[in-house]
Amino acid sequence: MTTRSYKSATFPLAVMVCGISISPAAELRPLSTDRPDTTESPRTVDAGHFQFEMEIASSTRESGAREFSLGELNAKIGLDHATDLQVVMPFYSHVRNGGEGFGDMEIRIKRNLWGNDEDATALALMPFIKIPTANGDLGNGEFEGGLIVPLGFDGPTGWSCAVQAELAVEADEDGSGYHLGLLNSVTGSHGLTENTAVFLELVSVLSAESGADWEAYFNTGMTWAVTPTWQVDGGVRVGLTSASADFTPFLGLSTKF
After folding, report:
1. What is the overall mean pLDDT for the chain?
2. Which are the contacts of 48, defined by CB distance < 8 A and separation ≥ 6?
3. Is 148 in contact with 34 (CB distance < 8 Å)?
């Protein structure tokens, strides 16, 4: 979720193509991305338009070993004024013990309930399902899914804030069944200049699986709006507990058209 400004409260005009309404370019909302923080944006892609958000590269250090990924893409299309469809594709990952290649895909639907345009608050529901497409040791070969609920709101002194709850059904590591996982996060971003902003975020990850430990992260970084429809970001994720990955620097790019 990034700092953004809003147009006046005019509901977008739209034309229909193949059953999907298309918002005119002049009525497009400002770019609002689900990256670079963990907390998703509660706002959707404009009807009939595409948005691509890519983690160009990241490198994770955990227990003395390094893992890296290249080109994880979240491809979105706006289905109507308040709904978009997303497909997350991790093109290449390399993990310790030799696993490498294409990762698990996710299909997600985001439905904004309110605040998609100029409101001081915004709420969305985002059900998702993980498709077991990963090569070798990169995945567990199981379907998983859940529901993400992000809430965005205007904070004090120019801060844009959001909180998120995510409940997921995840496969047990030993393949014996499924358990619940809960992710909670809180984030805030603030403009530094007209085109740049900094974000700060705390993330908690809990699992109901027997023997699982609590993970917690502090994430921070910057965004740069190169143009109204192009954004570059970079930052770092830092583990706060012994079960967390130690350190993950990342670089990303987003665009809408």
Report:
1. 91
2. 14, 15, 17, 20, 21, 22, 23, 77, 78
3. no
When pLDDT is cut at 50, 70 and 90, the band that residue 10 belongs to is: very low
Are 234 and 36 in contact, with CB atoms under 8 Å apart?
yes
Which tokens in the block code for residue 126? 């985002």
Which residue's entry shows tokens 């979105």? 76
Domains and CATH numbers, the chain: 15-256 (2.40.160.40)
Instruction: State yes or no: cis peptide before 12, omega within 30 of 0.
Output: no
How many Å apart are CA 83 and CA 49, to the nearest integer? 11
Residue 216, strand partner residues:
204
Confidence at 16, pLDDT banded by 50, 70, 90: low
Mean pLDDT of 193-199: 97
Strand 100-101 vs strand 121-131: parallel, antiparallel, or unpaired? unpaired
Indicate the burial class of 213 (C-beta count within 10 angstroms; 0-12, 13-18, 19 or more): exposed
pLDDT band at 112 (very low <50, low <70, confident <90, very high): very high
**Separation CA 42–CA 30 (nearest Å):** 13
